[in-house]
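Order emerges. For instance:

***
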Amino acid sequence: MHDEHAIPNPDESATPDNSADGTSRRAVLRTAGLTGAGLGLGALAGGTAHADAPQAAPAGAATAAQAPPRKGKTMVGVPFERRSTVRVGIVGLGNRGGSMIDLFLAIPGVKVVALCDPVKDKTAAAAKKVTEAGQPAPATYTKGDHDFENLCKRGDIDFVYVATPWDWHFDMARTAMLNGKHVGVECPVALQLDQLWELVDLSERTRRHCMQLENCCYGKNEMRVLRMAHAGKFGDLLHGAGAYNHDLRGLMFDPNYYEGPWRRLWHTRLRGDLYPNHGFGPVSNYMDINRGDRVTHISSFGTPALGLAEYRKAHMPAGDPSWKETYIESDRTISLVQTAKGRVIRLEHDVSTPHPYSRINSLGGTKGVFEDYPSRIYIEPDHTDDAWGDFGKYATEFDHWLWKEHSNPPGGHGGMDYIMIFRLMQTMQLGLVPDFDVYDAAVWTSPVPLSHLSIKAKGAPQAIPDFTRGMWKKARPGVDSQKPQA
């Protein structure tokens, strides 16, 4: 259902300047600089634990990490300003951004006014799409790595969309908000806990929303399960699971797919779950995380890192730059996340070994269980004799109104990308509260640094901060939205 290659892989993005050997100057130098700084992986209110200096989990790690003082008012329940036209600026026009522009252009009332990417031919190709869609030629920003700052300074942009290599996400989201723009960022939204706190604080201080896009929360199956969970079909919820298990070996070693080796290089620097959002977002929605429950701590374990080295040995010629790399990222990372209500979420990450694509997408409760890939369900009293039932039979009653209105949406990921962008633009046009916010972005991304620290500490639990600063206790709407009245 979800063809990851119909739109090239979901996170690959802006195409930075290339050096003489074909690697990405921006990605390599930028990533190296972050690594040299220790990445601030354990940065909480009380200090920093670096990747090269693992620390054992402190006593009481299963409790909430102390939140720093709030610097502004909460963004929970804050609506967008109503506007008939949403003016969008796009930063990053590689695989992801270069295809997502089609979805923005397909939505009525959305105008793409500015584009940014240091690779001029990609910017030109995207600009051509804008004019072919009947919109005025967009402004273009191609003058180096930091020209995105000039895009963000424009006075005619309401929303900045960021689809660049991961190590630029935080800076770009920060710059957009400081310039008065709402911002949506491909995953992960940041790579360090202190950065996640800064994005939360900036969102509250600037009154701009910062959102984690490409979150897989808007898939047809995910939204059906969500509505069934809220209707009580699974009883009291007990456990869930999500993953990003996707064989990316060929793409990570393909010299023409990514702009340089930036994604592969993260496997030389972090041992944890590099990409938790796809699995974590939907399960968090099922369990109303930040809306009546919250995640409190994570314990992670990782296998040896063998897959990329074996693939390199079999496929890469002698003298290829990749032979200088030493991989430490666990081929498979398995994390267990506990919630305040005692529920358990299992997360997995594996992009380095042969495996059919799977996000697992499972939910279980006192009345039964759903499992995806392939989709199947067993809930009482509908099913008996330990035999899986047909999940499709629940479509008429429980499919979300967005999927009933857009039964054949364009774009990748089975159409969920379009549904997500359509709904986000709709909430901006109508002046509604967004379905997801900066607190969700921070929670869904927090396993990136915390799983690394837990693996380094032999599975010791790491506290997940309460980014809402207590607001999680209040029930509120999320992705399971009501259809707006005309």
